[in-house]
């Protein structure tokens, strides 16, 4: 009952005051949109770009070219979809507009000496196959970085026809990410140009999601395959929107491999958006979106034998998620626009962490309450200079509550029992500022320069830490012994339930380690990671585009490291314009951002403000009085002298060719080398030959030192195809062959032998050799469509461990002699997804009327294949080399939506 009460009450704890402050700030920022601005009177070519629904399209590339082919101007549409050129001499021209997720537009234009009225241009939505098609009459810069065809993109149109689980298009597209490249800080999520922790808007309010759009751009801190870019819909000047309901029920689903009985599960998803003008205010519009997800699901906890046989059980793990967003935009004039965006995210989970070998009592309830407020301003300073400013504030409140308050017991390879020991409250305030200038110059040789400052991660985190306050006992793998039974002719160390009498249990001998935390529990961490960048996209003739760039990053999390300068370069050469045959290459240096958690570790343990006790010998392994615990030496955490921030060099080469008018093939190589990779080494570990638990400095237990001597290496190739066969099928396919080695993973990685950390060189945790991803739509232009998603991946590796503390460090990661890390393969993964949808247009004969009803049925893991996720690598465990978790079985998803 504690967990369910938490789920009901935690989201509204402090909600009224937080909402009041946020709404006051939102109202204040909205009022700033009403301030009038002066008009520009110089002669110009200007206009606005919209999609078929009337929504404005920011970030589109607009080129003005003379009829003879020479480009005389280039611009990027601002947040209000507007573009502006200085008016050229009289003559015949054409405008070319390109934006990923939309079909390109080429419109003839006759310029006279008289002032020109602003133009209204419409880009049609593209499907997943759309690429830049060229012919001799067009002057599109196919070699430009934004026209890269080795990009995985899903538009709003695609989301209507493709199978998308729970409406989470970001999770669907993440199959095309390179997890290893993402680095220490994980995958970066960028929403409307602002780095953030969640999308925060309903799926129907998303315009486009893409990965690897501009792989080497100095504008971003991550390589293209390590970040997800989301563009949300702009507010429109007339009313339209959508509403949908998605439903799933276990009666329509298969049964999880580990479930002895099918649990009763249900998921409901309500979402929609509404946009339109704010009538009393001129040139002002809004966009409101809402999403509510209710998941009543179960996790499977496997059978254990501690202290008596326990059967596999289904554990209720419900989740509730609510997201609300409101955008108000204003167009001051044809060269100045702005918007204010407020986002609200609230998520509550019960029995988190439960499943596999983790028992229900060792789970926890978690709530994440997040609010964001963004002010975005686009100002065309002149016909060729655009300034874009983002001021963003995010507050995140997160709490974790144990299911039970008790000690925790871990038996290696068998299970986790007792309490989760994770009670904590996190509060983070994170203001960010981004300002970027885009400057387009040159007529014969178009040149686009971008430069700006970014402060994407700055603020304060407060951590109320009550983790492991009751203590944790860890036992090494213990052989089966019989209590009250016999094992005829079999030594106890080799006994199993199969060859012993039914009365089987683990004989809990002396624990291998006992750990507990005491002392200070509240810690404050201040962090700042400002950066600046400059890039220069130069079109050298009609075939060669070169984009050099330079980026500077600073982070105070690693206070004694040097600041970093990161050069970037991308080159594209159009070999054959007729077939859009382009060769692209590029490389860049990327200084990896280190998470705030490392700074928190330093604050907690550098001087033992929080006493972390790790006991590997003595009477405390059977129980300690408070007085005895006070006499135990604490553990420390410190930085290695001369610590460096992790660095990666990312590089690649690709060849892309337009095979037919509506299809493109890309073959590429990508690789990266990472040095100064972080790892943690206990510099106070017991000395070889590891027969004693005595530490060199008896005044401390574990002295964990963060070091930067790790190295990582990855090489891979990929083949991508996006195409359309008449009106029958359109789709995107990508195959990746890759190999990755490393001697560390992230900063928390510890070697088995603390005195030989470089011996850990082996396959990396992300060494998934082959991946195949496909999404396609049959009959994309018909009312009745069939969407297909197919994913086929080879196994990820896992490691064999002995299950005992062979090196006397209190860390159970020792391997059998001569066995490297990640020497075993897990299970491969296959998932066929289908969606059958029907769209009924309510007013088919009315031009530009999008009113429609849509019905669809989607299936995920359609073939009901068992895909094992994790395996038990503990030698001597009764389930050694056996899977302990599996992905979901076949699931059916029903959806009905209304668009107007």
Mind explaining what this structure looks like?
With 900 residues, the chain is mainly β. The radius of gyration is 29 Å and the shape is globular. The protein contains seven helices and 53 strands. The strands form ten sheets. The protein has a 22-stranded antiparallel beta barrel. The relative contact order is 0.11.
Mind sketching the topology for me?
Blueprint: H1 2-9, H2 15-32, E1 44-50, E2 61-66, E3 71-76, E4 82-86, E5 91-98, E6 105-111, E7 119-122, E8 152-155, H3 156-161, H4 169-173, H5 179-182, E9 188-191, E10 194-196, E11 206-211, E12 227-232, E13 240-249, E14 266-277, E15 284-296, E16 298-301, E17 304-305, E18 309-310, E19 313-316, E20 319-333, E21 336-352, E22 364-382, E23 385-402, E24 408-411, E25 415-418, E26 424-441, E27 447-455, E28 458-465, E29 472-475, E30 481-482, E31 504-505, E32 513-519, E33 522-528, E34 531-540, E35 544-553, E36 564-576, E37 581-591, H6 596-605, E38 610-615, H7 626-630, E39 636-639, E40 647-660, E41 663-682, E42 703-725, E43 729-742, E44 762-763, E45 770-778, E46 784-793, E47 797-798, E48 824-825, E49 829-841, E50 852-860, E51 868-871, E52 883-886, E53 891-899
Parallel strand pairs: 1-7, 9-12, 24-29, 39-42
Antiparallel strand pairs: 1-4, 2-3, 2-5, 5-6, 8-11, 9-10, 11-12, 13-14, 13-53, 14-15, 15-20, 16-19, 17-18, 20-21, 21-22, 22-23, 23-26, 24-25, 26-27, 26-28, 27-34, 28-33, 29-32, 30-31, 32-38, 34-35, 35-36, 36-37, 37-40, 40-41, 41-42, 42-43, 43-44, 43-45, 45-46, 46-49, 47-48, 49-50, 50-53, 51-52
